[in-house]
């Protein structure tokens, strides 16, 4: 039973294949019959000169070329904010006024500390001078005592070894020598400690003088203000009136939005088409229908790997400078870019699907002349996504067959699809 069913299925498949073959043959026969009478209908276009452009598309984000985060030069209280977010400012323009009293207070405190340190230094140097004579005499006396104790110790050691003195007498001489050494070292240490204190105070004075000079520079430079360092727009304000600013936290962010740039990633297979200086067309959904001009400014020297969905690809970062813009273009906008890699004007152009490639690599096109098909070999130039440049083989106004079918042959009679001509 199972074998019978299998044979039945095979018969059905064979019958189906035969039907398909018959249908194809019928279509071909119908084409031939029509060729003998009114001819097979084909879509054509009159070959005209036009332009063909090779582009490299990519998406990116508009960014500012220059952005500066502004910090206060010192810690101070904010008296007033002189700008609002979105304001245009010039380099050197005041952004906020600060209470300069804090700097003056710091200056007064530092100067008072400096005077006190100088008084302490003078006292230490005076004590050193007064005590120097006494200390020298004490050092000489202590040194002589240590030397005498050493002499007694050496002599008593020999006497003890010969049994001339007792062990207690020898230990007494050892103790006397140790005390003399300790006394001498204590005097030496006191002298070193005093000198260390003097050097330490001199260093403290030098540091305080530098701090005073730095505060003076801040007062002269800041003058109780926070100013912009560039021309641009205030994009962020991080301070409020009455708050305190410092040198660690940002106060303002200024961006030069007049000069915009776009960072895109170009696939490694397309990067050979990209060169610095090439023109770029820029579009954004925020401004539908408008096209802005740009230019390739920089091509990264190294590639990088990026994730695209579930796969990774190798890309090369390319920087585009916006050279024609609109005030409505804002940093942060998503944009679509088309790098104009190559563009030719006033050349013969045919749709990509009108080209047939033979087994030997020859490129052929069907042309209709007096309702008859002619198969012509052509030499092509550059190719875009949809069109191909014709360098040799065709002439202007030739009627080129679009998307030719497999049934078309040299010399076949055809009927031109007039509607297609009108659309073109």
Could you walk me through the main structural features you see in this protein, from its secondary elements to its overall organization?
The protein has helices spanning 2-36, 101-161, 167-222, 418-423, and strands spanning 40-46, 49-71, 76-81, 88-89, 94-98, 225-227, 232-237, 244-245, 250-267, 279-283, 292-299, 304-308, 311-322, 334-351, 356-357, 363-369, 372-383, 387-392, 399-401, 414-417. With 424 residues, the protein is of the alpha+beta class. The strands form two sheets. A six-stranded antiparallel β-barrel has the order 2-9-13-11-10-14. Strands 6-5-3-8 form a four-stranded antiparallel beta sheet. Helix 2 (101-161) runs antiparallel to helix 3. The chain is elongated, with a radius of gyration of 48 Å. Residues 1-37 and 419-424 have low confidence and may be disordered. Residues 261-339 form the YknX-like beta-barrel domain.
């Amino acid at each position: 039973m199972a074998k019978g069913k299998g044979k039945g299925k095979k018969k059905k498949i064979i019958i189906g294949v035969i039907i398909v073959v018959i249908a194809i043959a019928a279509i071909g026969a119908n084409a031939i019959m029509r060729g003998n009478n009114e001819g097979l209908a084909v879509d054509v276009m009159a070959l005209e000169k036009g332009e063909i452009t090779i582009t490299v598309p990519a998406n990116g984000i508009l960014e500012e070329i220059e952005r500066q985060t502004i910090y206060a030069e010192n810690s101070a209280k904010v008296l007033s904010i002189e700008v609002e977010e979105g304001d245009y400012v010039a380099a050197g323009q005041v952004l906020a006024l600060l209470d300069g009293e804090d700097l003056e207070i710091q200056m007064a405190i530092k100067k008072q500390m400096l005077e006190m340190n100088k008084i302490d230094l003078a006292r230490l140097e005076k004590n050193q001078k007064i005590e120097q004579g006494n200390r020298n005499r004490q050092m000489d006396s202590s040194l002589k005592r240590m030397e005498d104790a050493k002499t007694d110790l050496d002599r008593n050691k020999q006497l003890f070894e010969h049994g001339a003195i007792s062990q207690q007498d020898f230990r007494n001489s050892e103790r006397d020598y140790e005390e003399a050494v300790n006394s001498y070292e204590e005097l030496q240490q006191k002298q070193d400690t005093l000198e260390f204190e003097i050097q330490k105070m001199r260093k403290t004075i030098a540091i305080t003088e530098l701090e005073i000079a730095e505060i003076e520079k801040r007062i002269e430079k800041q003058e109780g203000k926070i100013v912009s360092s560039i021309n641009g727009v205030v994009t962020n304000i991080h301070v409020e009136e009455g708050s305190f600013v410092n040198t660690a936290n940002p106060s303002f962010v200024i961006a030069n939005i007049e000069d915009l740039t776009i960072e895109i990633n170009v696939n490694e297979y397309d990067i050979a088409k990209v060169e610095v200086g090439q023109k770029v067309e820029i579009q954004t959904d925020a401004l539908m229908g408008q096209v802005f001009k740009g230019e390739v400014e920089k091509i990264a020297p190294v590639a990088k790997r990026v994730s695209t969905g579930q796969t990774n690809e190798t890309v090369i970062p390319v920087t585009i400078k916006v050279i024609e813009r609109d005030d409505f273009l804002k940093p942060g906008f998503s944009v679509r870019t088309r790098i104009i890699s190559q563009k030719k004007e006033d050349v013969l152009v045919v749709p990509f699907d009108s080209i047939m490639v033979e087994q030997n690599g020859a490129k052929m096109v069907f042309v209709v002349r007096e309702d008859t098909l002619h198969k012509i070999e052509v030499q092509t130039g550059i190719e875009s996504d949809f069109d191909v440049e014709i360098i040799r083989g065709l002439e202007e106004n030739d009627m080129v067959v679009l998307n030719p079918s497999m049934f078309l042959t040299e010399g076949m009679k055809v009927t031109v699809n007039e509607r297609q001509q009108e659309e073109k």
